[in-house]
Amino acid sequence: KTLGMGCSIQFFSANDDEAATRRHLLERDLTSALANDQLWLAFQPFLDLGSDRIRGYEALLRWQHPTLGPIPPSEFIPIAEQTGLIHAIGHWAVKTACLAAARWPRDLRVSVNFSVVQLKNKALLDAIVETLAEAGLEPRRLEVEITENVLISNFEETICLLQSLSSLSVTVALDDFGTGYSSLTYLRKLPLSRLKIDRSFVQDMLTDADCSAIVKSLVELAHELRIEVTAEGVETLDQLDYLRRVGCDEAQGYLIGKPGRIDDIPAIAARQFGV
Ligand code: C2E
Ligand code: CA
Ligand code: CA
Ligand code: CA
To answer: Is the CB of 114 under 6 A from ligand 1?
Structure first.
């Protein structure tokens, strides 16, 4: 819709109209989604590549809309952020995740995603501390997943928050690693326990020599810095094989387990990966 030569004109088509209508509807309905029990958490396992055991689960938000069906997080999380609903939803998510994890075997951790907007909230640290106490979950069993974009604005404040969390033994993972900028500064300045290599690298690492070199070197670099590495989006045994060979610590992806209902978790955990 952009004409060349710096002349930009917006045309509104029926599609734009439809998108705007859907957005308004979602924005309106998201307000009551929590109260109406339409939100739930899916859990996706992490496989330890040394022991072939499940080490924990990542909590992923799901919204089942009564008429539109499942709405992907990529669509409703931005709306939640723009409306401020993310604070209530995020609080519910971390509480629900901690309550669930408190019933799992004690060697399993739970990880929860936090976006920029959430990390800017001054009340977040107290809310997490309170939630852990209420759920009776040991802080070391909670991992907070952040992306590089949380550091673009208020770098110092974010570091301070992450340091407070890590002094409580809550661990911090840097998610989608490799997709943003200035990543090396973050490795040096943040109290990170884990780096999650983005799915796009895992996808290409067996067909693109540069990509496989990047994955291998990232694992080495992270280990030098005493940071563990989890590879995201592992879909094939060949990918799992390569990750094992380069010494990657953990794998996550459809091959190991798709995000699923909490009731299915004992079944997933019981499954062993003797590859
Ligand atoms: P993410 O944290 O990078 O989560 C991984 C995404 O990849 C999930 O998508 C997951 O379903 C998908 N995935 C996992 N394994 C595979 C695989 O083998 N192949 C493929 N193709 N995909 C795989 P999902 O659940 O749609 O979540 C999208 C994003 O929404 C998440 O990306 C995260 O950034 C955000 N999100 C989800 N839950 C929360 C939450 O509670 N709070 C916040 N702030 N963000 C969340
Ligand atoms: Ca994540
Ligand atoms: Ca990710
Ligand atoms: Ca992602």
So the answer is: yes
Which ligand is nearest the CA of 196, by number?
A: 3
- What is the interface pTM, i.e. ipTM, of the complex? 0.97
pLDDT of residue 262: 77
Q: Is 254 in the pocket of ligand 1 (CB under 6 A)?
A: yes
Establish whether residue 43 lines the binding site of ligand 1, counting it when its CB lies within 6 angstroms of any ligand atom.
Answer: no
Residues 6 or more apart whose CB falls under 8 angstroms from that of 158 comprise: 119, 146, 150, 151
- The protein residue with its alpha carbon nearest to ligand 1, atom 45, reads 113
3-state DSSP helix/strand/coil percent for the chain, to nearest 5?
Answer: 45, 20, 30
The answer to whether the CB of 198 is under 6 A from ligand 1 is no
Burial (CB count within 10 angstroms: exposed 0-12, middle 13-18, buried 19+), residue 106 = exposed
Question: 91 CB contacts (<8 Å, ≥6 apart)?
Answer: 127, 131
Question: CA–CA distance from 130 to each of 38, 91, 119, 125 (Å)?
Answer: 25, 11, 16, 9
Interatomic CA distance for residues 23 and 167, integer angstroms:
40
List the one residue out of 39, 115, 128 whose CA is nearest residue 84: 115
Using one digit for the tens of pLDDT, what is the confidence trace for 13-58?
A: 778 888 999 999 999 999 999 999 999 999 999 999 999 999 999 9
pTM of the model: 0.92
200 CA → ligand 1 middle, Å = 13
User: What residues pair up with 46 in beta bridges, in sequence order?
Assistant: 56
Token pair, residue 156, equals 């110092």
Q: Is the CB of 250 under 6 A from ligand 1?
A: no
